[in-house]
Each structure stands twice: as C-alpha cells, then as structure tokens.
Amino acid sequence: MSAHPALIFANDAFYRAFADRDIVAMAEVWAETDPVSCLHPGWAPLIGRDVVLASFKAILEGPAPPQIAPEAAEAAVHGDIGIVICYEAIAGDYLVATNVFRREGARWRLVHHQAGPVNDPPPEPDEPASPVN
Amino acid sequence: MSAHPALIFANDAFYRAFADRDIVAMAEVWAETDPVSCLHPGWAPLIGRDVVLASFKAILEGPAPPQIAPEAAEAAVHGDIGIVICYEAIAGDYLVATNVFRREGARWRLVHHQAGPVNDPPPEPDEPASPVN
After folding, report:
1. pTM for the whole structure
2. Do residues B110 and B37 touch, judged by C-beta distance below 8 A?
3. Closest CA–CA distance from residue A79 to any residue of chain B (Å)
4. Nearest chain A Cα to B74, which residue?
5. Does A79 touch chain B (CB under 8 A)?
6. Cα–Cα distance between A66 and A70 in angstroms, integer?
7. Given CB atoms, is A39 within the 8 Å cutoff of chain B?
C-alpha cells in the first residue's frame, strides 16, 4: 500500500491548491463527471461538486485560511479508484485524512475527502525505532 | 447520490456486526482481496486486513464496546467502488463516517473506514424546514 506516484501527485496537488489559496486549481483537483462529497472536520456532509467547491472557496478566501501540508501519505489502488490516507500538518497540530480519487484518463481526480482529529503526530520516518545510546 | 440499496445494505451489515459484537460477521464485512485500511477516531491509520480486524476484535471484546447506529446514509457508486457517508449515533452523540466498499461479485465489501467528530446531529428527515403554525 504505497508507491503509486500518480496518486500521491494528485494528493499533493490538492494540498498545493489549498496552500496557494487557488480556487481554480482546487476546481481542477475535483472530479467533474463523478459525484463528489466532502466531510470537513466537524462539518455536516457536503454532497455535490458545487456545494463542495463553494465550501473551499469560502475557506480559501476567508480571513484565516489554514496552512495544511500532507505527511506520511499511503496510497492504495482499487481498479479506477485510488485511496490516499495521510496526515495533515496544520498549525502545529495534526489531522488524518481520507482522499478518494477516480481515474479520469491519465490523471486522478478527487471524489471524496474526510479529515478528522488524530491523537498523535505521524511517526518520524527517519528515526530509529528506539534511541541509540 | 443515494438509492443504492445493496450498498446501504453492506453499510448496515458493518454496523450490525458492531452492534452484535460479532467479529466473524465483521470479518465477512471487510474485503479479502483488496487492501484495506481504517481510521478509528483519534487513532493512527491502520493498514492491512489483519491489523484492522485485530482492532475491531479489541474494540468489540473490550470492556465497553460502543453502541453505534448509522443514520442518514448517502451512497455514491464509482464503477466497482461505492462510497457511503453516514452519521454514527453513539451514546447520544454523533460522528460522521466514510465507508468505502469494493464490489466482490454480487456483494460489496468494506475496504476503508474513517469516522470523526461532527458538530451537529443529522437533520431530521421528517421535520419541515421551518415550523408550521
């Protein structure tokens, strides 16, 4: 469950659109032909492309759009659907997210996103399991 | 995005296995050939069928397995993948969940689950939008 570079690239593009506050890029990220949905942390479910994109517009153009960066992404492919699980580093804290992508031709486009709290930060990939000394 | 009875049935089966504390039924719910993953509320991501099922065994056989019932489920189909979003009623409170199913022959089996907090309960389906007087 990993080593799916095109899927990780699509996942990164989602967070890059967020970081750039780029609603046009965000609209590109989301699928156009498949139904889409989004569960922002704490929010009621949003269903439908227009509703989902309006929520991102409101967040990105709001007074304090959060800075979010993906970490420790893991991808799995199920035919024409790809699921990426990642941590979201946000203002010194972490969330965990599910991002579900649909293959549209040569690229993956987002059809569903959920993010929610996680108790601990991601494991340090370069750290030994136990301290040396 | 709804009216997919087989998918809603599979979603109900997941929560029924939970309510019945039935780890055998829970193992039936989860896909056997596709990679599976699970984001329990607050937990680090669990990846792999054995790890995921071990977590459910620990929860279901623990001292206080939560009573969880799905509400307001909405389903969308993307080829051989189905996504169900629902509220989870749990001890008078609510979570929202993403359940991703893979079609295996005639039935849908779970490949990914995430649940997290939600600020408000689901809307009452039978309640008028504004009070009648």
Report:
1. 0.92
2. no
3. 8
4. A47
5. yes
6. 13
7. yes
Upper half-sphere CA count for residue B117 (Cβ side, 13 Å): 8
The set of residues, in sequence order, having a beta carbon less than 8 Å from that of A16 and lying 6+ positions away, is A22, A25
Alpha-carbon gap: B86 to the closest alpha carbon of chain A (Å): 8
Residues of B in contact with A122 (CB under 8 A): 44
Q: Averaged over B114-130, what is the pLDDT?
A: 82
Q: State the smallest CA–CA distance between residue B47 and chain A in angstroms.
A: 8
Predicted confidence (pLDDT) at residue A27 exceeds the cutoff of 50: yes
- Quick one: tokens of B91? 């001890």
Residues A37-49, mean pLDDT to the nearest whole number: 97
Q: Which pLDDT score, from 0 to 100, does residue A126 have? A: 65
- Please state the rounded mean pLDDT for residues B95-119: 96
Coil, helix or strand for B95?
strand
Q: Residue A38: name the closest of A87, A107, A111 by CA.
A: A111
Nearest CA to B45 among A50, A10, A74?
A74
**A39 strand-pairing partners:** A114
ipTM of the complex: 0.91
Q: Residues 6 or more apart from A11 whose CB is under 8 A from it?
A: A70, A73, A75, A84, A86, A99, A101
Cα–Cα dist A94/A11, whole Å: 17
B2 falls in which pLDDT band (50, 70, 90)? low
Q: Provide, as residue numbers in chain B, all residues whose Cβ is less than 8 Å from the Cβ of A114.
A: 96, 98, 114, 116
Q: How confident is the model at residue A124 (pLDDT cuts 50, 70, 90)?
A: confident
